[in-house]
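My current task is to audit a protein record that another person submitted. Alongside the sequence sits a line of tokens, each denoting a local backbone shape. Where you disagree with what is written, explain briefly why. This is what I was given:
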Amino acid sequence: MTEKVRTVCQACQCECGVLVHVEDGMVVKIEGDPNHPLSRGFICVKGSSYHEFLYHTDRLTHPMKRSGGKGKGACKKISWDEALDEITEKLTTTKEKYGYDPLPVYNEPPESPLSTPALLKDYPLILITGARHINYFHSEGRQVKSLRNIVPDPEVEIHPDTARELDIKSGSWVWVETPQVKNERIRLKAKLTSRVDTNVVHARHGWWFPEKPAPEHGCFESNIDVVLSGDPPREPICGSVPTRGTLCRVYADQTISV
């Protein structure tokens, strides 16, 4: 008897909806899910043949360790315990060599209620960024009408209590400013939700407007990167900058009514 399992494809980041046909515990077929709200039954050849990867005779099912010189292609099978122990040892000794703590540590962001309390008067809220819509892949897809109909505007999530204090209504346009980039601001549409804390707002990323004039297509109007800086300080190991957490202020755009 064949069982159909509804899930999403993992062949790429798009995560299209799929129906996986299972017989006796084995995947025998993968097809698109016509009831998925985004992919609507579509599936590419990579997704429909993904079970061939799953059961391929050359698929790695255990750790392999290089046994010859680099680039020689010689490897030997080792246990999971051996692999994890070796990875732990190499990471620990490498971090110690360069003066880093071998265990993960937490550092407060450069701008936060604890790091910079003096900024709270002008920037009373914590801004987190990077949120994605499943409808879009990063900045792609805003020009696709069916997707844009589902998510038409760039949003910032605000707790209803916070919005009430700021006289911000659901669906209204608001301005967002941060201390990272002076004299810049972006415009987002308020989405009221209790999923965020009263001290936090959550901004979507990657927005542009295909209907606006080229070449910029309004990319500086509502893109959260406009109010975030790529300047140091940087994370000492990977060199990244703290672009996903800072302070901000949010206020209603009085020029546009809901």
